[in-house]
Amino acid sequence: MQIYLPIAEVSVNAFLLLGLGGLVGILSGMFGVGGGFLMTPLLFFIGIPPAVAVATEANQIVASSFSGVLAHFKRKTVDLKMGGVLLVGGLIGAAIGVQVFAALTAIGQVDLLVKLCYVVFLGIIGGLMFFESLNAIRKTRSAGGVVPPKRRQRGWIHALPFKMRFRTSGLYVSVIPPVVVGLFVGILSAIMGVGGGFIMVPAMIYLLGMPTKVVVGTSLFQIIFVTGFATLMHATTNYTVDMVLAVLLLVGGVVGAQIGARIGTKLKAEQLRILLAMMVLLVCGKLAFDLLVMPSELYSIGTGAGH
Predict the structure, then answer these.
(1) 19: CB partners within 8 A, 6+ apart
(2) Could you list the residue ranges that cross the membrane (predicted)?
């Protein structure tokens, strides 16, 4: 069933979009990521213009994250205080990101920037997560199925001022790192159409030392507000939100997130991370391949900039 998308100005199969929404919703519920880092490139692959894919995908992330967060609220695995601190940085970052996006759209370089951002970030994060998860699984096997509890290192983060107690996460740390992480993720959310969970989740585990079970729910909680704000800004600044596309992705995403949250409870943290890493690397490889193999696109952008 072909459906015409008015803002994107292309016709796409409605069931394909529902399926993509469902798939990304499942990932959202399992890993605590908004799923945009996967959905936005998938939209590029089926012919949606990058500027429309980015702005509309932010819309779908809000719904799938909200659906995922409800499941985590029931399990009491959301640190609202930490979510609030991350949110302060996230909203400021999203506002900056939308302005950068608008400026790049005006000079016709936004498509290239979005794709390059994806290749760089997905490559780095996928690689780091993959090797870290492999090491964790190896340690589990050599220790007879039990990972010895790591003593928390007192690093430079613990020396920073403005400390706050986060009871749900069992932490007493400075609010500066979470605000900076939130700011960075907010900028990426606006430019790349992602919830930023693929950066947020590793940062919360390795930088802040939060327990993995609390990280997923807290990350989703913060994503809802930042991506909601980014969508609103894109709709009013760049006019690139396609509501028909958003609704189809949204329906699939909400259903998928509930299924994903159930699957996530049955897998170990290391297994979840290695699965996510493999998916990230796969998408990164496909995007890099497209950028290298299709010089016609790069050529046309180059000539446009030269005039």
Answers:
(1) 252
(2) 12-39, 85-107, 113-131, 171-194, 214-232, 239-260, 272-293
- On whether the CB atoms of residues 178 and 87 are closer than 8 A, the answer is no
Q: What would the two tokens of residue 60 be?
A: 């779908």
Q: Which of 60, 50, 58 is nearest to 25 (CA)?
A: 60
Query: Mind listing the pLDDT tens digit for each residue in 219-231?
Result: 888 888 887 887 7
pLDDT of 305 reads: 42
In 3D space, the residue among 230, 250, 138, 241 whose CA is nearest the CA of residue 190 turns out to be: 230
Angle between helix 80-106 and helix 50-74 axes, rounded to 10 deg: 170
Question: Are 251 and 24 contacting, i.e. CB atoms less than 8 angstroms apart?
Answer: no
Sorted by where each begins, the domain ranges of the chain are 2-146+155-306
Give CA angle at 252 (52, 214), nearest 5°: 95
